[in-house]
Predict the structure.
Amino acid sequence: MADESWKIPMLVQELAAKVQQPPSRYVQPEQYHPVSLAVGAGKQEPIPVIDLSRLLAVDGADDEGSKLRLALQSWGLFLVDNHGIETSLMDDLINASREFFHLPLEEKQKCSNLIDGKHFQVQGYGNDPVASKDQTLDWLDRLHLRVEPEDERNLVHWPEHPNSFRALLHEYTLNCKRIKDCILQAMAKALGLNEDYIVTQFSNKAPTFARFNYYPPCPRPDLVFGVKPHSDSGVLTILLIDKDVGGLQVLRDGVWHNVPTSPHRLLINIGDYMEIMSNGIFKSPVHRAVTNAGKERISLAMFHGLDLEKEIEPAAALLHEKQPARYRKMKAKEYLAGFYEHFCRGTRFIDSVKI
């Protein structure tokens, strides 16, 4: 029987405690070394900031809506102020996730994403899938959980320790749903669509996944990515970034920009589905995570997707003779299959969907 041990690499947290140099499987080809893809020199334009309270206000919505449209056209992402989530909830959830990642391996593996120790599944604690022997691996472990629909949560994969984890994640999920709906309505208005157009694309079966990313210290940040450059697949991602340790970078006009650590702000970016629905008016941003030689880093991404049977296509109201559809129509499940295949190779599936 062929040796397929390459499909199940060692957990990076365990690996980081044992090696002084990253194994070759994690080292990027020379032309893709993080050090050779440096962030742009000179003073950088700041990441746009949207005030959610103004976006919802009677007297400030138009100005903030214009800022939102410009941010999504030029960056595909923005930081959010006044989002209404208690800072204590944000801190407590990140601290609970840090406590989970610091538990003994045996305890964490109660939430494993491996069936019988060898068959990968999306939910749970562990590595991302490995599709081929020559795939360059990322320097992180993750806990990936389906949080919506609520009746489809598989609590087998939800940590029981720390005791507060489940209640904190539930409360945070409800807050993110509120923010998502507000942002999507504002995005629809910014496109000139009915404000409920995007929200109504979500059925009661539309999935939301919480992904806790744990980046251990890496001995060679110049050679290894925390996460390779990619865009997100879904409609919207709400990211809670580490308030002390930076590492996220976004590509804009061929230049990499650092996303600053910004305590208790959220970072929101659109995904490929939203780029398609906007017919390319809004851009799904390419981003990456670099590693740190001395410090661990944790982030929490909430991925808001669509029902697998939902057809993704440009909004009809945005199309006319001079502006035809720029993307093929495709079911979400077909898009995801292509997306993950391309992600493992470090390429973008959306490029193959363009007409």
User: Anything to note?
Assistant: The chain is about 25% helix and 20% strand. The mean pLDDT is 93. The longest helix spans residues 165-190.
